[in-house]
Amino acid sequence: MLSHTVINNSNQDYSYTPSSSTTYTLACTGGTNTVYKTVPVTVTQTTATPAPTVTSVTIMSIATNQELVPSNQVTVGTAVYVYVRGTNLLETAKIDFYNANNQLLGSIVNDGTVSNIAVASASSLRFPIAGSSIYNLITGASQFRVVTASGGSSNAVPFTITTPTTPAPTLDFTINGGLSATVDPANFSSGWMALKWTSTYATSCTASGGWTGVKLLNNSTGESKYVSAATTFTLTCTGAGGSATKSVNVVVSPTAYNYNQSQTASVLNALFSAKNALSGNGATFGYEWNNDLQFGSFNIADVGALQIALTKEGVFNGEVTGGFYNQTYGAVQAFQAKYGIPATGFVGPQTRAKLNSLFAK
Fold first, then answer.
1. CATH number for domain 170-252, candidates 3.40.50.300, 1.10.150.120, 2.60.40.1180, 2.60.40.10
2. Smallest Cα–Cα separation from 249: which of 198, 184, 174?
3. DSSP 322
4. pLDDT in tens, 218-256
5. What is the pLDDT of residues 62-86, one digit of tens each?
6. pTM
7. What are the backbone dihedrals phi and psi of residue 329, each rounded to the nearest 5 degrees, phi first?
8. Number of neighbouring beta carbons within 10 Å of residue 191
Protein backbone atom coordinates (compact mmCIF):
# COMPACT_ATOMS: atom_id res chain seq x y z
CA MET A 1 0.00 0.00 0.00
CA LEU A 2 1.42 3.31 -1.11
CA SER A 3 0.11 6.46 0.53
CA HIS A 4 0.75 10.14 0.04
CA THR A 5 -1.13 13.10 1.40
CA VAL A 6 -1.31 15.86 -1.15
CA ILE A 7 -3.72 18.78 -1.52
CA ASN A 8 -2.79 19.71 -5.09
CA ASN A 9 0.11 18.51 -7.26
CA SER A 10 0.79 19.98 -10.62
CA ASN A 11 4.57 20.18 -10.36
CA GLN A 12 5.62 16.79 -8.97
CA ASP A 13 5.39 13.30 -10.43
CA TYR A 14 5.30 10.09 -8.47
CA SER A 15 6.81 7.11 -10.28
CA TYR A 16 5.91 3.51 -9.54
CA THR A 17 7.06 0.31 -11.23
CA PRO A 18 4.67 -2.47 -10.40
CA SER A 19 5.79 -6.05 -10.89
CA SER A 20 2.28 -7.28 -11.29
CA SER A 21 -1.14 -5.93 -12.21
CA THR A 22 -2.51 -3.51 -9.61
CA THR A 23 -4.92 -0.58 -9.01
CA TYR A 24 -3.99 2.90 -7.91
CA THR A 25 -6.67 4.86 -5.98
CA LEU A 26 -6.71 8.55 -5.15
CA ALA A 27 -9.01 9.79 -2.36
CA CYS A 28 -9.64 13.51 -1.97
CA THR A 29 -11.48 14.62 1.21
CA GLY A 30 -13.12 17.94 1.93
CA GLY A 31 -15.21 18.46 5.11
CA THR A 32 -17.31 15.38 5.49
CA ASN A 33 -17.11 14.32 1.83
CA THR A 34 -14.51 12.14 0.11
CA VAL A 35 -14.12 11.60 -3.63
CA TYR A 36 -12.33 8.49 -4.98
CA LYS A 37 -10.66 7.95 -8.33
CA THR A 38 -9.22 4.59 -9.30
CA VAL A 39 -6.69 3.77 -12.08
CA PRO A 40 -6.05 0.11 -12.92
CA VAL A 41 -2.60 -0.90 -14.21
CA THR A 42 -2.11 -4.20 -16.01
CA VAL A 43 1.37 -5.71 -16.04
CA THR A 44 2.12 -8.32 -18.71
CA GLN A 45 5.14 -10.59 -18.66
CA THR A 46 7.27 -10.31 -21.82
CA THR A 47 9.80 -12.88 -23.01
CA ALA A 48 13.03 -11.67 -24.63
CA THR A 49 13.46 -12.65 -28.28
CA PRO A 50 16.08 -15.42 -28.37
CA ALA A 51 19.25 -14.76 -30.35
CA PRO A 52 19.54 -16.52 -33.69
CA THR A 53 21.81 -19.50 -34.13
CA VAL A 54 23.44 -20.80 -37.28
CA THR A 55 23.86 -24.55 -37.64
CA SER A 56 25.03 -24.91 -41.26
CA VAL A 57 26.08 -22.89 -44.29
CA THR A 58 26.00 -23.93 -47.94
CA ILE A 59 27.53 -21.77 -50.68
CA MET A 60 26.20 -22.28 -54.20
CA SER A 61 27.51 -20.82 -57.45
CA ILE A 62 24.86 -18.60 -59.02
CA ALA A 63 26.16 -19.46 -62.52
CA THR A 64 26.21 -23.25 -62.15
CA ASN A 65 23.95 -23.81 -59.12
CA GLN A 66 26.65 -26.15 -57.83
CA GLU A 67 27.87 -26.24 -54.26
CA LEU A 68 31.34 -24.80 -53.76
CA VAL A 69 34.03 -26.81 -52.03
CA PRO A 70 35.22 -25.99 -49.44
CA SER A 71 31.80 -24.76 -48.39
CA ASN A 72 33.04 -21.88 -46.24
CA GLN A 73 35.23 -20.19 -48.86
CA VAL A 74 34.38 -17.86 -51.73
CA THR A 75 36.82 -16.80 -54.44
CA VAL A 76 36.85 -13.08 -55.17
CA GLY A 77 34.61 -12.31 -58.14
CA THR A 78 32.54 -15.50 -57.97
CA ALA A 79 28.81 -14.78 -57.81
CA VAL A 80 27.33 -17.01 -55.11
CA TYR A 81 24.32 -17.54 -52.90
CA VAL A 82 25.00 -18.21 -49.22
CA TYR A 83 22.34 -20.48 -47.73
CA VAL A 84 22.11 -20.26 -43.93
CA ARG A 85 20.22 -22.74 -41.74
CA GLY A 86 19.60 -22.44 -38.03
CA THR A 87 17.01 -21.13 -35.59
CA ASN A 88 15.34 -17.78 -34.87
CA LEU A 89 16.31 -16.36 -38.25
CA LEU A 90 12.91 -14.92 -39.12
CA GLU A 91 13.68 -11.38 -37.95
CA THR A 92 17.10 -11.18 -39.59
CA ALA A 93 18.01 -7.55 -40.15
CA LYS A 94 21.57 -7.82 -41.44
CA ILE A 95 24.65 -9.97 -41.90
CA ASP A 96 27.76 -8.58 -40.19
CA PHE A 97 31.20 -9.57 -41.48
CA TYR A 98 34.25 -9.61 -39.21
CA ASN A 99 37.96 -10.13 -39.73
CA ALA A 100 40.19 -12.47 -37.75
CA ASN A 101 40.56 -9.80 -35.03
CA ASN A 102 36.78 -9.66 -34.63
CA GLN A 103 36.64 -6.20 -36.15
CA LEU A 104 33.48 -5.36 -38.08
CA LEU A 105 34.27 -4.95 -41.80
CA GLY A 106 30.81 -4.25 -43.11
CA SER A 107 27.25 -5.48 -43.32
CA ILE A 108 24.70 -6.63 -45.82
CA VAL A 109 21.43 -5.07 -44.65
CA ASN A 110 18.02 -6.63 -45.17
CA ASP A 111 16.25 -4.04 -47.30
CA GLY A 112 13.18 -6.17 -47.87
CA THR A 113 14.06 -7.31 -51.41
CA VAL A 114 14.75 -10.90 -52.36
CA SER A 115 17.81 -9.75 -54.28
CA ASN A 116 19.40 -8.96 -50.93
CA ILE A 117 18.60 -11.05 -47.83
CA ALA A 118 15.75 -13.45 -48.48
CA VAL A 119 14.36 -14.98 -45.26
CA ALA A 120 12.50 -18.17 -46.07
CA SER A 121 11.57 -19.15 -42.52
CA ALA A 122 12.79 -19.05 -38.94
CA SER A 123 15.19 -21.84 -39.86
CA SER A 124 16.59 -20.69 -43.20
CA LEU A 125 17.62 -17.65 -45.21
CA ARG A 126 19.68 -16.80 -48.25
CA PHE A 127 21.82 -13.87 -49.29
CA PRO A 128 23.88 -13.23 -52.43
CA ILE A 129 27.50 -12.18 -52.74
CA ALA A 130 28.13 -10.77 -56.18
CA GLY A 131 29.66 -7.67 -57.68
CA SER A 132 32.75 -5.68 -56.82
CA SER A 133 30.99 -3.46 -54.28
CA ILE A 134 30.13 -6.41 -52.04
CA TYR A 135 33.57 -7.96 -52.41
CA ASN A 136 35.25 -4.66 -51.61
CA LEU A 137 33.06 -4.45 -48.52
CA ILE A 138 33.86 -7.87 -47.12
CA THR A 139 37.33 -8.67 -48.46
CA GLY A 140 39.42 -9.84 -45.54
CA ALA A 141 36.46 -11.42 -43.76
CA SER A 142 36.98 -14.59 -41.77
CA GLN A 143 33.52 -14.92 -40.22
CA PHE A 144 29.99 -13.53 -40.23
CA ARG A 145 27.11 -13.26 -37.79
CA VAL A 146 23.38 -13.06 -38.36
CA VAL A 147 21.80 -10.11 -36.50
CA THR A 148 18.06 -9.77 -35.84
CA ALA A 149 15.97 -6.61 -35.62
CA SER A 150 15.92 -6.87 -31.82
CA GLY A 151 19.70 -6.85 -31.73
CA GLY A 152 20.31 -10.54 -31.18
CA SER A 153 23.49 -11.82 -32.75
CA SER A 154 24.20 -15.38 -33.80
CA ASN A 155 27.26 -17.46 -33.27
CA ALA A 156 30.25 -16.64 -35.49
CA VAL A 157 30.25 -18.58 -38.75
CA PRO A 158 33.63 -19.25 -40.47
CA PHE A 159 33.69 -17.52 -43.84
CA THR A 160 36.73 -16.72 -46.00
CA ILE A 161 37.19 -14.58 -49.09
CA THR A 162 40.04 -16.11 -51.05
CA THR A 163 42.14 -14.53 -53.79
CA PRO A 164 41.85 -16.49 -57.04
CA THR A 165 45.00 -18.27 -58.18
CA THR A 166 45.87 -18.36 -61.85
CA PRO A 167 46.78 -21.91 -62.92
CA ALA A 168 49.96 -22.45 -64.90
CA PRO A 169 49.40 -23.23 -68.58
CA THR A 170 49.37 -26.84 -69.68
CA LEU A 171 50.42 -28.09 -73.12
CA ASP A 172 49.96 -31.37 -74.99
CA PHE A 173 52.07 -31.46 -78.17
CA THR A 174 52.43 -34.39 -80.57
CA ILE A 175 53.92 -35.15 -83.96
CA ASN A 176 52.13 -37.81 -85.99
CA GLY A 177 50.37 -38.78 -82.77
CA GLY A 178 53.50 -39.23 -80.64
CA LEU A 179 56.49 -37.43 -79.21
CA SER A 180 58.77 -38.36 -82.12
CA ALA A 181 58.51 -39.46 -85.73
CA THR A 182 60.83 -41.04 -88.28
CA VAL A 183 61.43 -39.84 -91.82
CA ASP A 184 62.79 -42.13 -94.52
CA PRO A 185 64.58 -40.17 -97.29
CA ALA A 186 63.68 -42.95 -99.72
CA ASN A 187 59.98 -42.47 -99.06
CA PHE A 188 58.79 -38.99 -99.92
CA SER A 189 55.44 -39.33 -98.14
CA SER A 190 57.13 -40.22 -94.84
CA GLY A 191 58.40 -36.65 -94.62
CA TRP A 192 54.97 -35.15 -94.02
CA MET A 193 54.46 -34.45 -90.33
CA ALA A 194 51.23 -33.51 -88.55
CA LEU A 195 51.83 -31.30 -85.55
CA LYS A 196 48.89 -31.15 -83.13
CA TRP A 197 48.55 -29.45 -79.77
CA THR A 198 46.11 -28.36 -77.09
CA SER A 199 46.75 -25.86 -74.30
CA THR A 200 44.90 -24.61 -71.24
CA TYR A 201 45.22 -21.35 -69.28
CA ALA A 202 47.35 -19.88 -72.08
CA THR A 203 46.93 -16.59 -73.92
CA SER A 204 49.57 -17.08 -76.63
CA CYS A 205 51.65 -19.85 -78.21
CA THR A 206 54.93 -19.37 -80.11
CA ALA A 207 56.87 -21.84 -82.26
CA SER A 208 60.64 -22.26 -82.39
CA GLY A 209 63.22 -24.74 -83.62
CA GLY A 210 62.06 -26.36 -86.86
CA TRP A 211 59.23 -23.86 -87.22
CA THR A 212 58.52 -20.27 -86.20
CA GLY A 213 55.76 -17.78 -85.60
CA VAL A 214 52.72 -17.26 -83.43
CA LYS A 215 50.45 -20.30 -83.29
CA LEU A 216 46.86 -20.98 -82.30
CA LEU A 217 46.16 -21.86 -78.69
CA ASN A 218 44.75 -25.19 -79.88
CA ASN A 219 45.08 -27.07 -83.15
CA SER A 220 43.46 -30.49 -83.04
CA THR A 221 43.28 -30.80 -86.83
CA GLY A 222 47.05 -30.46 -87.15
CA GLU A 223 49.57 -28.26 -88.95
CA SER A 224 51.48 -30.05 -91.70
CA LYS A 225 55.23 -29.70 -92.13
CA TYR A 226 57.51 -31.47 -94.58
CA VAL A 227 60.76 -32.74 -93.06
CA SER A 228 63.71 -34.39 -94.79
CA ALA A 229 66.27 -34.19 -91.98
CA ALA A 230 66.49 -34.53 -88.21
CA THR A 231 64.42 -31.71 -86.75
CA THR A 232 63.13 -30.54 -83.38
CA PHE A 233 59.84 -28.64 -83.20
CA THR A 234 59.30 -26.61 -80.02
CA LEU A 235 56.12 -24.90 -78.85
CA THR A 236 55.82 -22.52 -75.89
CA CYS A 237 52.42 -21.44 -74.59
CA THR A 238 52.29 -18.56 -72.12
CA GLY A 239 49.57 -17.31 -69.77
CA ALA A 240 49.12 -15.29 -66.60
CA GLY A 241 50.20 -18.29 -64.53
CA GLY A 242 53.50 -18.88 -66.36
CA SER A 243 54.46 -20.85 -69.46
CA ALA A 244 54.67 -24.42 -70.72
CA THR A 245 57.16 -25.66 -73.31
CA LYS A 246 57.10 -28.95 -75.16
CA SER A 247 59.25 -30.33 -77.98
CA VAL A 248 58.80 -33.15 -80.48
CA ASN A 249 61.52 -34.67 -82.63
CA VAL A 250 62.00 -36.04 -86.12
CA VAL A 251 64.74 -38.61 -86.61
CA VAL A 252 66.07 -39.81 -89.96
CA SER A 253 66.24 -43.53 -90.56
CA PRO A 254 67.10 -44.13 -94.24
CA THR A 255 66.17 -47.50 -95.69
CA ALA A 256 69.09 -49.70 -96.56
CA TYR A 257 69.07 -50.62 -100.20
CA ASN A 258 70.71 -53.65 -101.72
CA TYR A 259 71.56 -52.84 -105.28
CA ASN A 260 72.04 -55.70 -107.70
CA GLN A 261 74.85 -55.73 -110.19
CA SER A 262 72.90 -54.02 -112.95
CA GLN A 263 71.92 -51.21 -110.56
CA THR A 264 75.51 -50.86 -109.48
CA ALA A 265 76.59 -50.74 -113.10
CA SER A 266 74.01 -48.08 -113.82
CA VAL A 267 75.35 -45.98 -110.97
CA LEU A 268 78.90 -46.39 -112.16
CA ASN A 269 77.90 -45.64 -115.75
CA ALA A 270 75.99 -42.57 -114.62
CA LEU A 271 78.93 -41.28 -112.65
CA PHE A 272 81.28 -42.04 -115.54
CA SER A 273 78.99 -40.24 -117.95
CA ALA A 274 78.75 -37.37 -115.53
CA LYS A 275 82.51 -37.09 -115.38
CA ASN A 276 82.83 -37.11 -119.14
CA ALA A 277 79.84 -34.88 -119.81
CA LEU A 278 80.89 -32.27 -117.35
CA SER A 279 84.57 -32.38 -118.32
CA GLY A 280 83.63 -31.45 -121.88
CA ASN A 281 85.47 -34.37 -123.55
CA GLY A 282 82.61 -34.92 -125.96
CA ALA A 283 81.29 -38.13 -124.46
CA THR A 284 77.62 -38.63 -125.03
CA PHE A 285 75.31 -38.91 -122.02
CA GLY A 286 72.29 -41.18 -122.22
CA TYR A 287 69.83 -42.49 -119.67
CA GLU A 288 66.23 -43.67 -119.48
CA TRP A 289 64.06 -42.90 -116.44
CA ASN A 290 61.38 -45.44 -115.59
CA ASN A 291 60.65 -44.40 -111.99
CA ASP A 292 58.94 -41.33 -110.61
CA LEU A 293 61.22 -39.16 -108.49
CA GLN A 294 60.45 -36.60 -105.82
CA PHE A 295 61.97 -34.68 -102.96
CA GLY A 296 63.78 -37.12 -100.70
CA SER A 297 63.91 -39.97 -103.23
CA PHE A 298 66.78 -42.30 -102.36
CA ASN A 299 67.67 -43.72 -105.79
CA ILE A 300 71.30 -43.01 -106.61
CA ALA A 301 71.16 -44.12 -110.23
CA ASP A 302 68.00 -42.29 -111.27
CA VAL A 303 68.69 -39.16 -109.24
CA GLY A 304 72.36 -39.06 -110.25
CA ALA A 305 71.40 -39.31 -113.91
CA LEU A 306 68.73 -36.65 -113.36
CA GLN A 307 71.31 -34.28 -111.91
CA ILE A 308 73.54 -34.86 -114.95
CA ALA A 309 70.66 -34.15 -117.32
CA LEU A 310 69.71 -31.00 -115.44
CA THR A 311 73.33 -29.87 -115.57
CA LYS A 312 73.41 -30.32 -119.35
CA GLU A 313 70.12 -28.36 -119.53
CA GLY A 314 71.80 -25.48 -117.69
CA VAL A 315 69.45 -25.49 -114.69
CA PHE A 316 71.64 -27.37 -112.18
CA ASN A 317 75.16 -26.46 -111.08
CA GLY A 318 75.57 -28.61 -107.99
CA GLU A 319 77.45 -31.82 -107.40
CA VAL A 320 76.16 -35.11 -108.70
CA THR A 321 75.30 -36.85 -105.43
CA GLY A 322 72.29 -39.03 -106.20
CA GLY A 323 70.31 -37.24 -103.50
CA PHE A 324 67.06 -35.46 -104.35
CA TYR A 325 66.93 -32.41 -102.07
CA ASN A 326 66.48 -28.64 -102.27
CA GLN A 327 68.90 -27.83 -105.08
CA THR A 328 67.74 -30.71 -107.26
CA TYR A 329 64.11 -29.91 -106.47
CA GLY A 330 64.58 -26.31 -107.66
CA ALA A 331 66.40 -27.44 -110.79
CA VAL A 332 63.54 -29.81 -111.70
CA GLN A 333 61.10 -26.90 -111.38
CA ALA A 334 63.30 -24.80 -113.68
CA PHE A 335 63.47 -27.67 -116.20
CA GLN A 336 59.70 -28.07 -116.11
CA ALA A 337 59.15 -24.34 -116.61
CA LYS A 338 61.60 -24.39 -119.53
CA TYR A 339 59.51 -26.99 -121.36
CA GLY A 340 56.04 -25.83 -120.37
CA ILE A 341 55.45 -28.54 -117.81
CA PRO A 342 53.71 -27.61 -114.51
CA ALA A 343 56.60 -26.69 -112.20
CA THR A 344 55.78 -29.01 -109.31
CA GLY A 345 59.29 -30.33 -108.68
CA PHE A 346 57.88 -33.84 -109.02
CA VAL A 347 59.42 -36.03 -111.74
CA GLY A 348 56.33 -37.85 -112.96
CA PRO A 349 55.30 -39.35 -116.29
CA GLN A 350 55.21 -36.02 -118.16
CA THR A 351 58.62 -34.89 -116.93
CA ARG A 352 60.15 -38.34 -117.46
CA ALA A 353 58.82 -38.40 -120.99
CA LYS A 354 60.56 -35.14 -121.74
CA LEU A 355 63.80 -36.29 -120.14
CA ASN A 356 63.70 -39.56 -122.05
CA SER A 357 63.03 -37.71 -125.31
CA LEU A 358 66.16 -35.69 -124.72
CA PHE A 359 68.55 -38.26 -123.22
CA ALA A 360 67.31 -41.83 -123.74
CA LYS A 361 69.48 -43.76 -126.17
1. 2.60.40.10
2. 174
3. S
4. 999 889 888 878 889 999 999 988 999 999 999 887 553
5. 888 888 877 778 888 888 899 999 9
6. 0.41
7. -60, -45
8. 20
